[in-house]
Amino acid sequence: MSQSDRAAWTSKVDGVEIVDGSEDFDHEYLYWVGCAGSFDDKNQKVTQAMAKLMQRAGVDFAILGPQENCTGDSARRSGNEYIFQMLAMQNIELMNGMGVRKIITQCPHCFNTLLNEYPQLGGRYEVVHHSQFLEWLIANGKLDMSDARLEERVVYHDSCYLGRHNDVYMAPRNVIGNLGGIDIVEASANGTKGMCCGAGGARMWMEETIGTKVNDARSEQLVATGAERVATACPFCYIMIDDGVKGLGKGDDVQVADIAMHLLEALEASDARGGAGNVLETLED
Fold this sequence. Notes:
The protein is 39% helix and 10% strand. The chain has helices at residues 34-39, 41-56, 73-77, 81-98, 108-117, 130-139, 170-177, 214-223, 235-247, 259-274; strands at residues 29-32, 61-62, 102-105, 126-129, 153-156, 183-185, 229-232, 255-258. The strands form two sheets. Strands 2-1-3-4 form a four-stranded parallel β-sheet. Strands 6-5-7-8 form a four-stranded parallel β-sheet, sandwiched between helices.
């Protein structure tokens, strides 16, 4: 994919500032969008939703756009340490030169790499996953949840790189749990005993050829809860579970989306009930 297209998603969200790295970073947060959030059609909607939520909460953030490289997670997971270090050093040199201190990212793979692996190469930042950041925005009243509702049953799918790798289990559940009217259920495998979506360890780029596909098996567990919505907090999980649910023929009955998308939908519906003048632009299908 072309680096010049990394910020193409901003055409659907007004007011997102793109910095080129030539000057000091004068914003509180760098929003690290990641490769999936920049290029994948499904996950561009997550990025747009998250940007709108941060704008709604008055967060001071900017993105690197074409200056952002892949963190190198998949390269390291697949054994290509040289490519990982090359990508990481480019990103670290850029961010250190700008004086970046705080980073928000919606990808647990980016989150894990930036938080736990970049310090090995001199990149030390305060890194927060978007589930943690949304939880903080809600807890501090920066997002008004008083009339945000989803009258449906919701199941959350744990991301391995968020949960088992970094012990972040409750933040995404708390974000969804702040919506009124919902019935939260758990899959048979959840939390510390959760099941992978099938894309971790660079397997995102492989095809299953033997036995049941991992994402199909996991999707069966989620659908079995009777949930009308599946909430994810990882771009890989979003792709794999959405494909799995559709492969089971449940695409019309079960809506798979990132927590940021579910949250924005509920808040926009709240705006609509309170007055059409406050409705934010709806994400395109």
